[in-house]
Write the structure tokens for this entry.
Amino acid sequence: MKIIAYGIRDDERPYLDQWSKDQGIDVKAVGDLLDDTTVDLAKGYDGAVVYQQKPYTASVLDKLAANGITNLSLRNVGVDNVDTDAVKRNGFKVTNVPAYSPAAIAEFTVTELMRLLRRTPTFDRKQAAGDLTWAPDIADELNSMTVGIVATGRIGRAAMKIYQGFGAKVIAYDVYHNPELEKAGIYVDSLDELYAKADVISLHTPATKDNNKMLDDAAFAKMKDGVWILNPARGALIDTDALIRALDSGKVAGAALDVYEDEVGIFNTDFGSFEAIPDERLKNLMKRDNVLVSPHIAFYTKTAVKNMVQFALNNNKQLIETGHADNQVNF
Ligand code: COI
């Protein structure tokens, strides 16, 4: 059995080598992402393990299939960047890693919220300039707030526990009701109800065609004045222009954004200076003390990266050996 793994970073390499040694399976590690220029490297392999935030286009998937590879294992959870028509047309079997570390994302999300509530970005900036004063940057307390969780999958539930540990009241909206949370009376009946009641809105839903820009002008208008917005999920969930308007008006008190609708080609790139970042809207957000932008790093822990690599390789091996895998995605 021969597997090719694309887009392998230095921090992933030890986990890949360990798996390869433990399993006695040859894994070719390629630093470049899977695209039209690298797809031919996969010729002769039985499966491909991939990770990327940019789209898996029809053109790339058609070429991969023409090279005889239809076992495709993503090292991440989201599948919104996969061309589903090309998957179906070519008979791809695709796996993801649904739970590499829900805690990693949940912990980061709450950390960012605490930084916002305690105004640490402002104090850090003032202190760096020698200003050790307090006012006017008085903080808010999470324990007296209501947090609205959008989607109670693994990450939403992990975040919920941490918010509850801080003493916050938690409510949630999801079309699917987790039986335990249902019993605990966590769910509200509609997003509108969640918007009306929550002091903090914590997004943990995958991006679908139905929730594109779900936080738009109309949604912000339904929220409490001074609401805090957290998005560690997908950039497509927020209409960035509407968010900027809501920040300008004070409707939104602040936001922590680990994802951004135009992040492809920008996040995980070193531009050398703030000025050189080629996105004015993003820079508008980054300049504000009450907005925390991070380059899609909520997932980026040692535990998560190890699991992403090793679970994806296990999935690919299972696909190659049996023609199906436990973590196969049903498009
Ligand atoms: C995911 O697993 O879907 C993530 O958002 C992590 C990422 C680096 C793509």
About this structure: The first strand starts at residue 2 and ends at 5. The chain has two domains: 2-100+302-322, 102-293.
